[in-house]
Structures are given as structure tokens and as C-alpha cells.
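2024-03-11 09:14:02 DEBUG pipeline.ingest accepted 1 chain
2024-03-11 09:14:02 DEBUG pipeline.ingest length=474
2024-03-11 09:14:03 DEBUG pipeline.predict start
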Amino acid sequence: MNHKAQIIKYLSFDFLSALLSWILFYHIIINHSTAGQNLLHIKAINRESVFITGMIIYPTLWLLIYTLWGFYSDTFRRSRLKELGASITVTLAGSLAIFTLLISSDIITGVSGNLLSSFLTLFSIHLIVSYPPRLAITTFTIIKIRKGILGFNTLIIGSDRKAVNIFKEINSQIRPTGNRFIGFISINGGQSYPLSRFLKHLGGLDSVNEVISKYKVQEVILAIESYEHSKIGKIISRLDNQSDVVIKAIPGMHDILTGRIRIDTIIETPFIKISHKFMPVWQNNLKQVLDFVFSFFMLALFFPVSILIMIWIKLTSRGPVIHSHERIGKNGKPFMIYKFRTMIENAETNGPELSSASDKRVTRQGRFLRRMRLDEIPNFINVLKGDMSVVGPRPERRYYIDQIVKIAPHYNQLLKIKPGITSWGQVKYGYAENVEQMTQRLKYDMIYLDNMSLFVDFQILILTVLIIFKQRGV
């Protein structure tokens, strides 16, 4: 499947549809105003320049809105009914935002009744023009999937009776779902597997990531027996880093699966979908935009303060002004985190060591910077680079992660999202001085993981500011 080509199709038709809707909306407004049928008019000396500028800006704004909403995140697995609901919702929200922009820029004005009718005109025109092309692309894609022209490379994890039943049920469906089975992974050792009569045995659980990469697997179906349920944690752990792979399970496993789950369909074979997404797509995209804007603003705001801090550090202690070392980010990817140095030079010559309230390695100015959280200003550079978010679990070093995982294996769940400058664990618990305290703080970050939203992030930011003013830093 050519995902880029599919995205280009949607982008192209969305752009052309938005362009057409602007032309229609503009001329309807002009006709109304020149006919004197209402008080709405275009307040611009050069109407032609407004029209031409709108032909560029209006479609571009809509593509940004669609992208933020997540319209281009999964272009092959789309439901026409859900797409209709999403189109109505995003068109309503987008029309409101753009119409507000038109009013605030003084391009259009009028009495409230005329403004309402004009807004409804904008909404109706855009929905009527933009939805049919999108529906057509989605319909043609569904037809290709049902005819077997398009398909998803699918791997079954499991090898016994349930796996065989699932394989037969999917292959016998009247409305094919596009699953192209490439083989199966066994859970238990042995030489004989019932599913091997139908599919190729591709190895044990230890080879699952290698198989997914080699065969470009797009879907994984968990079909294990009840006596294999004790291994579900290990299975999910193995699949944690496969964020681009759709993972489904049979309904009987509902009560034992970890992570976020939802029923995938009620028409074909009912599966539970294990989602890697902890926030709605539009919130996640908006979070990234806000991270970038907020970090850029904070770096600009604190630039004079940062200069003074760097001079202060340089004059009062030996060593570099900026301290950097490796931390572990999303999907276990290492990155270099930046902070203002608060310790003496070569503070960790004997290896990684957590700081404490009475740590003699911390310099006098370092204690002040930590108490006011000013040492973390360079973290915003990490946010701009895409390594971190403003709000998220604090990143740790691999040395400590390996120790935490031995006590709390579910820590790996935190590696599914970007680490942050501040977190709920940081707000509720504070800095940890040893692995035991890091494990205790983990429960707050796990709660955050299950309740991620922009509203929760905003609350954490407010609490962080209050903590800084109370000087509760370490």
C-alpha cells in the first residue's frame, strides 16, 4: 500500500474543495451585499485582492485544520459513517474559527442575524463541497479492500484452537477486511501446531519484532488460549514499540489486556483494538503545536535571565555552563538532555548517582537554580528538537530504568509517550533520591498516562508554577 499516494489524494481534493467553497462563499456574500438584501458587506478597499488572497490562505487553513484533527493519520482503515460524523464536527469547528478570523480582520461585518446566516452559509457550502470527494476516495478504497486489491499484512500470535477459529472466521467473512495472513508466532514450545496446517510458522515470541519488520506487518491478531494468559504481559511488552502496527485481540481477553482498548467493529469479526494513542489525534497534534509555541516563547522570555545565569555559573564554579547527558525518550530512543550545570565539574566520575537535598556535589548557585527550576530552562531546546514535551513523565537514564523495570515492569508503558519538562509525578511527589522513590513516583505518572488530555496538561502547568513560587524544588 502506498500511504503517501493515498494521503496526497485526500490533500489534493481537500485543497480543491476548500478553494471552491471559498469562491462560492465569497460571491454569495458579494451578491447579497450589492443587492442590499442585508447589512453584511465586505469592508475592503480592494475586493479583488481579498478574493485572491483568500484563494491561497483559506484552503491552507483548512488543510492545517484537517491535519490537526488527524484526518490524514489512517487513510486506509476508514469508516464512511464515522467519517461523516468527523466531517460535520471538523467543518463546524473550522468554519467557526475561520469566520471569527474574517470578522476580527474586519473583512466582513454586519448585524448579528446576518452574521449567523453567513456563518451557516460558510458551514453548509464547505460541508457540501468537501465531503463528497472524501467519501468517494474512502468508498473506492473500501471496494479495493473487499475485492482483495488492497490488503494488510497480518500476523497471528497464537497457534492452537482459537487461532485456527479466528483464521477461518476472517477468511469466511462475506465482507473481507483485507487481512493478508503471512504466518503465525507460537507462544509455547513444541513441534506440532494446529494452525500450521493453514499458515507458516514464523518462530516464537522472541522473534516477533524481527518478523514484523521483515514481512512489513501492518496488523497483529492476538489469539491465545486461556492457559496462555499468564504470558499476555510479555506479549504486550514485546509489541510496545510497534506504534505503526494495529494490534487486535479476541473478546475473551478483554479483562486481562493492559492499555487502552475499544471494540473495533460490530459488523465483521468483533475484535478489541489495543491502541497506542493515549489522546485523541487532534489533541495530540495540538499538543505538539502548543509545545513548540510555548517553548519558543519561554526561551525568548528567559533569554536575558539565561545570559545572567550562564555568567553566574561561569564566575562561581569550574566547568561548562550547560550540562548534557543521555536520557531515554519515546519508544526507548536515547537523546541528550540539556540543563544549566548545578553540580561541581565531573560530579559523576564514579558513575550515575541521584542527587539529594544534602548532596555536597550541588553548588551554591545550583541549589538556587534547582529550587526555582531555572536549571531546566534549556529543556525547552529539547522540546523544540522534538525529544521532549512540556508536560510528560520525566525522562530517566537507562541505568535507572533497568533497575525500575525489575521492580515495576509497567514502567515501560511510559516510554510510549514523549517525556516532559514537568509531570504529575514531579508535581505530586517531587524529585526522587533513590530507585525506591522513583518507583513510588511512578504511580502518579501511570495515572497521568491513563488520563492524558490538554486540560490535564494545563492543570499540571499551573501546579508547577505554584510549586516554583513556593520554592519547593530540590
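2024-03-11 09:14:41 DEBUG pipeline.report Residues 34-40, 253-261 have pLDDT under 50 and may be disordered.
2024-03-11 09:14:41 DEBUG pipeline.predict end
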